[in-house]
Amino acid sequence: MMGSALFRVTGALLLAGICLSPPAAAEPIQVTDLAGRVVEIDQPIERFVLSEGRYVSVLALLRPETPVEGLVGMMSPLWWTQPDLERQLFEKFPEARDIPLFASKSEHSVSVEKIIELKPQLAILGLSDHGPNARSAELIAQVEAAGVKIVFIDFRLDPLNNTIPSIELLGKLLGAEEQAARYIEFYRQRLAAIEKRIPEITHRPTVFLQVHPGRRDCCWAMAEGMLGPFLTFVGGRNIADELAPGPTSQHTEEYLLTENPDVWIGTASGTVEEFQEGQNVVALGVGMTRETAQQSLARYLSAPAFQAMGAVQNGRAHVIWHNFYNSPFNIVAVEAFAAWVQPELFGELDPDETMRTIFREFLPFDLNGTYTASIPNE
Questions:
Q1: How many CB atoms lie within 10 A of CB 329?
Q2: 3.40.50.1980, 3.40.350.10, 3.40.50.720, 3.40.470.10: which CATH number matches 203-374?
Q3: What pLDDT digit, counting tens, does each position of 27-49 carry?
Q4: pTM, rounded to two decimals
């Protein structure tokens, strides 16, 4: 009896010892980032840094229960691009308030010393954004020399082709492959619904995609890169891309009047406060309603040069939230462009409902405000 009891106790202690032992580190994984670099990194990743604060929304998409877990530093705060999202982040995940910053708005402000002090295993950087990027050779060399691995993602330089691989890469690195797969399926389905009807296009309207209307002098356009390729994808002709290849280019009012594009689209970066103050910068986002967004757009387009454009006269002038240009939620912009450029084929699309669906099904936050608007067709 005693020997049997001793055996049971000993067995239980051995089992407890096995259960209480720290788990063995997983094998390193090898990934190829969006710069084509092969990176091998130990798992799990428990400490990492981000370049732009806007990428916190990607973390929330992939890990809605623990979006900032392991995030030990980032270049810029989330509030610069999404203040309402930052407010909700701080309310639901108070630990986010204490995440250190290692720069401000540009690559030149980055403190490599601060990054190294934070002791991350991994730095997640944009292929081409406002912070350190794939061309930052000196910074890359210094950070990697300190034992920090670097991977590049991209929602800005070539979002049409790089959004899904970026989500897939981050899902693998952060142990969120199932959630990444869910969003990728959502994204692909919506993209495919547009792509399958492209062969039906018989006419490609001309489009001018103007950046920051009212914030910059007239008229800066997106051309090759950012949201520009979406126009070609949905059946439009991006006139800025044809004239001056490159991410952005400046054009005169006379150019707009001469070209007289069939469709005019602005990327709005104004805020509700600027709208209420009477400023002539087109506003969308938090605090804006459908009515105030239309008023803001109409205010800007009341200038004689715009009033002479056929796109304004024919009710084909629209505006979209500027921050879709560097976001995994850019599928909303694809759908909006499709509905505006080829309304006969895609008029039934509802990009606003797509935005609501993303927040409802994938994010731990509430959606506030208005993110697209059109000039009333009177």
A1: 23
A2: 3.40.50.1980
A3: 899 999 999 999 999 999 999 99
A4: 0.91
